[in-house]
Amino acid sequence: MNISRWILGSLMLWLGATGVTYAVTDQEAADMQLIREQFPELGPSAIRPSPISGLYEIGMGMRLSYVSADGRYLIRGDLYDADTEENLTEMRRMGARAEALDAVGESSMIIFSPQGKKTHTITVFTDIDCGYCRKLHRQIKSYNELGIEVRYMFFPRSGPATDSWYKAENVWCADNRNVALTMAKTGMIVDERDCGTTPVAQHYELGLSFGIQGTPAIIAESGELIPGYVGPDELLRYIESE
Q1: What predicted TM-score, i.e. pTM, was given to this entire model?
Q2: 205, 148 Cβ separation under 8 angstroms
Q3: Catalytic positions, please?
Q4: Domain of residue 53, CATH code
């Protein structure tokens, strides 16, 4: 399977999901058909009316833009509600991230769950050799004790066919992935093992589509991207203030 196409497909499904029941006028339907002809690579599910009359949202992954009804004028940038100061484009991205992670599924993640009641879930794109990723993992027990479940996905910043990439694959192929991840993050060697296809490439491509450039990158349940390390107590305060 082409991973990039799989990710794009899952994101495009989300971008068009509300379009299934989204009420459009005859004029809007005609405009959207014209835009489809101008941007055939997008497909019908990636075009929808924006909050501004005569302006339409088009999307490819996290890249959302706005186009005039005739398809001639394209606006690249975020759309804000001046009254509420809400970033409407980022809200759409948040939903896309959350849906994309649901599409990946927890069976492709390494999860550290609280022993008691789970109150929040975060997804962390991690690089085994990243210093702040290791700092976060040293506090994994503290996150769990606060009721925060941590779901790990791999994002080796050095890219494919590098030491960090191979370490991630070795962790995934280990008999006990949680133990292996902890070992790797303390600098210990995890035995090399070939277990066939791993989700490392899928995770990495998804992280790129999210615009992740550094690690750790934390995704909240809402789909909000929180870049960089955030300690347990501070993270809990932030999540619960949203």
Answers
A1: 0.81
A2: no
A3: 127, 130, 133, 157
A4: 3.10.450.70
